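Quick one, C-alpha cells below. Sequence please?
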C-alpha cells in the first residue's frame, strides 16, 4: 500500500452572490486534492492522510466527520480548542471564473507547527511515500514556521519521502512578491514533483513564456514538472524531455474552482500506482474536466465515482 500525506488548510466555504442565496460547504486547495484522490483511489492500494488543524467547534467536528466519510484518514488533523477554521467566499462571473474573499488571519491551521502534538505528526510523516503541499500551505504560516517547515521537508526528503508541490501563488497571502519568491526559492530545491499552473508562475516570476517557466523550474533540480494550462492541457517535463498532454473541451464550464486541485488528484492517483507519467496527466485532465462542470470546490461524489475503476486499473 502507498501512503500519501497532504498538508494544508481547509476553510468554510460560502458560494453564491453577496446578499443573495449562499451555499455553505468547505474547501481548501490541498483538502480538495485529498478528497478527489480518496474518492478515486482504492483504500487497499492508496491511503490518504490529511495534515492540518481544526477547532473544537461543531463546524470543525462536522468537517472532520465528512472527511472521514470521503475516505480520508484524519488521525493527523489536530484540534485547537481556542481557534476555528478560516472562512472564504467565492464569487463567480458569467464565464465560471471566480474571485475570492478570505477571513483566515487567525485560523487554527495557521499554527500547525506550533501545536503541542505536531512533533508526533512529523515523526509519522517520515513513514509516508509522498508529502504533498502547496504555496498556500506555506503562505498561511508565520514567517519562522515557514522556514522551519522547509527545513523539515529537507529532512523528510533525505529520509526517502517524495515531496510534491503545487505553487498555487496567492498574492494576498504574502507581504509582497519578493517575500513569496524568497520562500519559494528556498523550498523548490527540495521538490521532486512540481504540479504548477502557468498563470500562477507568470504572476509570481514574470516568465516570458511557458518554455522560460519550465527552464526556471528545471534549474532547481526537480525530476518531474507538470505545467497546467487549463483548457490547453498540460506540458510534462521529465528528464529534459517535454510532452504536451491535451485535454478534451467540455460543453459548459460552470465553475473553475479547484480545477487544478482535481488535476493533481488524478495525476497523483496514477503516480502512486506507478503509471506512465503521460497517463497520469491524462487522468488529471479527465478529473478536472468533470469538476469544472459543477459548482463549488468539492462536487457531489456521484459525479466522480465513475473514475474509480479506470484510475485503479494497471496501465
Amino acid at each position: 500500500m502507498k501512503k500519501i500525506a497532504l498538508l494544508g488548510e481547509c476553510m468554510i466555504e460560502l458560494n453564491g452572490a453577496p446578499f443573495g442565496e449562499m451555499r455553505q460547504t468547505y474547501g481548501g486547495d490541498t483538502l480538495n486534492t485529498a478528497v478527489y484522490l480518496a474518492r478515486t483511489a482504492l483504500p487497499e492500494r492508496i491511503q490518504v492522510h490529511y495534515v492540518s488543524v481544526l477547532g473544537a467547534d461543531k463546524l470543525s467536528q462536522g468537517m472532520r466527520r465528512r472527511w472521514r466519510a470521503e475516505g480520508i484518514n484524519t488521525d493527523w488533523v489536530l484540534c485547537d480548542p481556542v481557534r476555528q477554521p478560516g472562512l472564504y467566499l467565492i464569487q463567480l462571473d458569467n464565464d465560471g471564473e471566480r474571485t475570492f474573499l478570505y477571513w483566515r488571519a487567525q485560523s487554527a491551521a495557521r499554527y500547525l507547527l506550533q501545536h503541542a502534538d505536531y512533533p508526533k505528526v512529523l515523526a509519522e510523516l517520515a513513514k509516508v511515500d509522498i508529502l504533498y503541499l502547496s504555496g498556500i500551505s506555506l503562505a498561511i504560516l508565520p514567517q519562522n514556521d515557514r522556514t522551519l517547515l522547509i527545513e523539515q521537508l529537507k529532512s523528510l526528503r533525505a529520509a526517502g519521502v517524495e515531496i510534491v508541490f503545487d505553487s498555487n501563488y496567492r498574492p494576498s497571502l504574502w507581504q509582497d512578491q519578493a517575500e513569496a519568491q524568497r520562500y519559494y526559492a528556498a523550498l523548490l530545491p527540495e521538490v521532486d514533483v512540481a504540479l504548477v499552473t502557468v498563470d500562477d508562475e507568470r504572476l509570481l516570476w514574470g516568465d516570458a513564456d511557458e518554455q522560460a517557466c519550465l527552464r526556471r523550474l528545471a534549474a532547481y533540480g526537480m525530476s518531474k514538472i507538470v505545467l497546467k494550462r487549463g483548457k490547453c492541457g498540460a506540458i510534462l517535463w521529465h528528464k529534459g524531455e517535454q510532452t504536451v498532454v491535451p485535454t478534451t473541451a467540455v460543453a459548459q464550464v460552470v465553475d473553475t474552482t479547484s480545477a487544478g486541485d482535481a488535476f493533481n488528484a488524478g495525476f497523483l492517483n496514477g503516480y502512486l500506482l506507478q503509471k506512465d507519467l503521460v497517463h497520469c496527466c491524462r487522468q488529471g485532465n479527465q478529473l478536472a474536466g468533470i469538476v469544472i462542470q459543477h459548482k463549488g470546490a468539492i462536487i457531489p461524489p456521484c459525479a466522480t465515482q465513475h473514475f474509480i475503476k479506470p484510475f485503479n486499473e494497471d496501465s
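The chain has a mean pLDDT of 94. Residues 143-158 form the longest helix (16 residues).
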